[in-house]
Write a structure and sequence with these properties.
2 domains; single chain; Immunoglobulin-like; mainly beta; 6-stranded antiparallel β-sheet; 21 strands; 284 residues
Length: 284
Amino acid sequence: MKKIYLSIIAVSATLASAFAQTVPTCSLNPTFIASNKVGVYPDSVTNFVSGVVGQPYIQNLTVKVPKDTTSSGITFCFNRFEITNPTGITNYNLPPGLNLGSSTAAVNTGSVINGAPAFKFPGNANNCASIYGTPTTAGSYTLSLKVTPFMTPAFGSCPASPNVSGGNGSLTPPQTLNYYIINILPATSTGIRDIGKDKMALYQNEPNPFSDYTDIKFYVEGEDNATITVYNALGSVVSQQTIKTNPGENKVTINAANLASGTYIYSLKYKNAITTKRMMVINN
């Protein structure tokens, strides 16, 4: 009885740690949804964004599960895809401080497998999830996710709304995905740089991630023009502001009203120097 009690405490502690931070509201990637592709976006080619120790991190995931598939002339209907933590792996091998979660009720199973929360993605549906938190340890982390499809042989056409609780998980062997990588960079100092007789520094935007407004502060020692430029993941300019600086700390404010959820790069150009940082936008 004592061992069972201690096991319950251990599981409770795992759950408390995994959900200690509020799971962010995830969103579907519109380009991926509009395409004829299925699976997970970002894919292994795009991969996940990098993070920095001590700075909030978020990676949005879009999961498209098809309605059916055909194998050896037999049609199978997808009930769901389950994502679980493989045996011998700690928390999907996510960087310490990060968790996998979903704000979508249909995806959360409420169960823990191999010490980490498990998730289900219904068949013939689009859902999302997030990797989120604040990384604590620098390094390169190759994620490990066990994916098990649950299917039912088709007798006629597959239903538009499958029985998510049904299906057979042994019809197709589960796969362990080991190609997603998250690089966590060491925490940096203020990054003060010498520019001739002057110095400059670009600080991390606050708040970050953000959904409405964020402030970008920077330090310069002279009076001159400074330009803050924001780029999306494709390298296109989505915002640009040029101001006349004052010696010391300066600030520009970015409005996220017209920005889609995702990762952005912002740069400070001052005199002949340019420095950059990354920020995250989360729009519901």
